[in-house]
Specification:
Layout (H helix, E strand, L loop, with lengths): L1 H16 L9 E7 L9 H9 L3 H8 L9 E4 L22 H10 L11 E4 L7 H16 L5 E2 L11 E7 L6 H6 L13 H12 L3 H18 L2 E7 L3
Parallel strand pairs: 3-4, 3-5
Antiparallel strand pairs: 1-5, 1-6, 2-6
Helix pairs in contact: 2-4, 7-8
Length: 240
């Protein structure tokens, strides 16, 4: 049932959230992982994948494929776009480093990708985002191949199961967004992610009346989430 619920949520995202009307201000384009599904339940593997993705190169190579009038604004470092006050320019989600990625992959128990089956990545194939998603996926496949990870495009969900997905999601400016996305049972938590430390931080932030302190708590929660790597922010889509 847990698989079926998560897969149903993801299908709604792919068919609706990644629609052209939704690709607008305050959107973060990302690669998401189902952290409850082997082998992506292995933290070191997720960190290896994140470190192997060159987001600057990905942005430069694919931005021309975005649907018309989509405000492509640059490669992403964190979850919150620079258009939001929660954005922290110091936050970086496992910077691109092939040597680090290979080391993490070995530590995860998959040296040079040995023992790994193809990583299946779902994405919306419909117009007008389909061409962009295909180009984006192809480049990620090439980058991951450099450390020995094979990627199947497009991936498939079987019996309610899925591994990874590409999606552009609107990041809402209200402070409960992290709770909706990264807490267990959150209506937009397609990652299956859970962290008691993050839960405490988010709960405290929602009660905090001092704006500066609240933003600091949200940024710390973001930092912890990115360290756990349930998601790889790829590029920001926002109107400055």
């Amino acid at each position: 049932m847990r698989w079926l619920t998560a897969f149903s949520v993801l299908l709604v995202f792919l068919l609706n959230t990644d629609a052209p009307a939704q690709i607008r201000s305050n959107t973060v384009d990302h690669l998401g992982f189902n952290v409850t599904a082997a082998p992506l339940d292995v933290l070191l593997l997720r960190q290896a994948i994140t470190s192997a993705i060159d987001r600057r190169a990905l942005y430069e190579a694919t931005k021309a494929r975005l649907p018309a009038a989509t405000p492509a604004s640059g490669p992403a470092g964190g979850w919150f776009p620079p258009s939001l006050p929660q954005h922290d320019p110091e936050v970086r989600s496992h910077p691109y480093d092939v040597a680090v990625a290979k080391s993490l992959l070995g530590q995860a128990g998959f040296p040079e990708g040995q023992g790994l089956t193809e990583l299946e990545v779902l994405y919306n194939q419909g117009a007008p985002v389909g061409a962009f998603r295909a180009a984006e996926g192809a480049m990620i496949r090439a980058q991951l191949a450099s450390i020995g990870i094979r990627v199947k495009l497009p991936g498939q969900g079987r019996q309610g199961q899925f591994q990874a997905f590409l999606l552009g999601r609107v990041v809402l400016p209200n402070d409960d967004f992290l709770s909706r996305t990264f807490l267990p049972g959150g209506p937009t938590n397609a990652f299956g992610y859970r962290s008691p430390e993050v839960a405490v931080l988010i709960a405290s932030a929602l009660k905090e009346t001092d704006v500066t302190k609240r933003i600091a708590m949200l940024r710390e929660a973001e930092r912890l989430v990115l360290s756990d790597a349930p998601v790889v922010p790829l590029m920001y889509l926002y109107a400055p």
